[in-house]
Write a structure and sequence with these properties.
This protein has 233 residues and is an alpha/beta fold. The protein has a single domain, classed as Metallo-beta-lactamase, Chain A (4-Layer Sandwich). The protein contains seven helices and 13 strands. The strands form two sheets. A seven-stranded mixed beta sheet has the order 7-8-9-10-11-12-13, with helices on one face. Strand 3, helix 1 and strand 4 form a beta-alpha-beta unit.
């Protein structure tokens, strides 16, 4: 399974996941023009887009994506919050599996300050690889079997939040995943088949890429990389 980072972080999020037969866009939180540019103006191979929640850094290009004939799958709450009328916008249900091409996808509920946020468990019928996508949540209550790829938010380090505005700090604690929470999730899951861990949505002010990378590598012993907008810029 190939994971391509177009953008990650508070400025916008967009990722492409492919098993060689089917390609999914995860999030469309940058402008459609920038998505086109990153994909060399060729979106014909994108079968669908999954959106985790309605915040603009995850859904900015939703209307344009739909206008170009690409289906968007998201929760009913997110679909309503987007305020977009289009038959290609497909509301999906928590823990109800659906298929797009060679991918079987199970959405699951997360914890964020929005309408109805979802994470996604994505399995390829072509390669039998299994990816979990978790972003914008302060924790994940679920464990997953036989994962081969993990995309997970690691937004901030508790020790680096000193001086943060009190109200912002309250929101941070209730809506984003810290390094400690990320490590707790990884420790709780069996990682024997995991080939790659991709760390998402690092804060510009309250994270340290080197420190986070080393901490996750130490705990997991796996190949770990940090997704950031440098790959898009």
């Amino acid at each position: 399974m190939d994971i391509r980072i177009i953008a990650s972080g508070s400025r916008g999020n967009c990722y492409i996941v492919s098993d060689g037969r089917t390609s999914l866009m995860l999030e469309c939180g940058i402008s459609y023009k920038d998505i086109q540019k990153a994909l060399n103006f060729n979106l014909k191979g994108i079968s669908a887009c999954l959106i985790s929640h309605e915040h603009k850094d995850h859904s900015r290009a939703a209307e344009d994506i739909l206008k170009r004939g690409i289906q968007i799958y998201t929760s009913g709450g997110t679909a309503k919050a987007l305020g977009v009328e289009n038959y290609l916008l497909r509301p999906i249900e928590n823990k109800k599996v659906f298929s797009v091409g060679s991918f079987d996808i199970m959405p699951f509920d997360l914890r964020h300050d929005c309408a109805e946020p979802f994470g996604y468990l994505i399995k390829s019928s072509l390669t039998a690889e299994k990816l979990v996508f978790i972003t914008d949540t302060f924790y994940c209550p679920y464990k997953f079997k036989e994962l081969t790829h993990i995309m997970i938010e690691c937004n901030y380090i508790d020790d680096l939040t000193e001086g943060t505005n009190t109200e912002l700090l309250k929101r941070l604690y209730k809506s984003h995943m810290s390094l400690d929470a990320c490590l707790d999730f990884l420790k709780a899951n069996v990682l024997s088949k995991v080939k790659e861990i991709v760390l998402l949505h690092l804060s510009d002010e309250r994270s340290d890429e080197k420190m986070i990378l080393e901490a996750v590598q130490k705990v997991t012993g796996k190949y770990v990389r940090v997704a950031n907008s440098k790959e898009y810029d």
